[in-house]
Write a structure and sequence with these properties.
The protein has 184 residues and is mainly alpha-helical. The chain contains ten helices and no strands. It starts with a helix and ends with a helix.
Length: 184
């Protein structure tokens, strides 16, 4: 798994899964013990330190639910909530065409899109680079700045405010990396 995939998988999981989800226990352990920074490919030590200081999953659950869960959540995590005319089915079709296994949950969830970027990177087939560019340019970048800004504004814990800042910087760095590869 390369750096691009690691970043997308970590961030996607933190946005997609409830903080008390048993699958996140190892990730929260890495964050809490300060070990994520050692393998994090971006220069974000200060932000990772802030994340480390505020990562009690039990305390984060209420903030996660208020931010992202249900019809009355303060920051809907779906592209279709932020981009007029966007359709979850379009994202689902795009990912299915590339062979990504999808469950019943909406395919245009911010966390799902990051996990999809990781999945596409891990597939490393000839056309996956173009698929990554499409994923970023059409399905993620147009609305992620607004979404992450709202997360920062509405989060009651430093964890989710910091996660939004880390994500903003990471997404831009990854898109820049894709651009460099396109230019070559």
């Amino acid at each position: 798994m390369n750096e691009f995939s690691i970043i997308c998988r970590v961030l996607g999981s933190l946005f997609y899964r409830q903080p008390q989800d048993p699958l996140l226990v190892p990730l929260f352990t890495l964050i809490r013990e300060g070990k994520l920074a050692a393998s994090w490919p971006l220069e974000q030590d200060e932000l990772l330190g802030r994340l480390q200081n505020s990562c009690d999953p039990q305390l984060l659950a209420a903030d996660f639910n208020a931010l992202f869960v249900g019809e009355k959540c303060s920051v809907p995590p779906f592209r279709s909530a932020w981009e007029a005319g966007s359709d979850e089915g379009e994202v689902r079709q795009f990912l299915k065409q590339r062979g990504m296994p999808l469950g019943e949950s909406p395919a245009d969830h911010f966390g799902t899109l990051l996990l999809a970027a990781s999945w596409l990177e891990d597939q490393s087939q000839e056309d996956e680079f173009e698929a990554q560019v499409t994923l970023f340019d059409e399905y993620l970048m147009p609305w992620c700045g607004t979404f992450l800004g709202k997360v920062e504004a509405h989060a009651t814990t430093p964890f989710y405010r910091t996660l939004a800042a880390i994500s903003r910087e990471a997404l831009q760095a990854m898109r820049d990396e894709l651009q460099e590869s396109e230019d070559e």
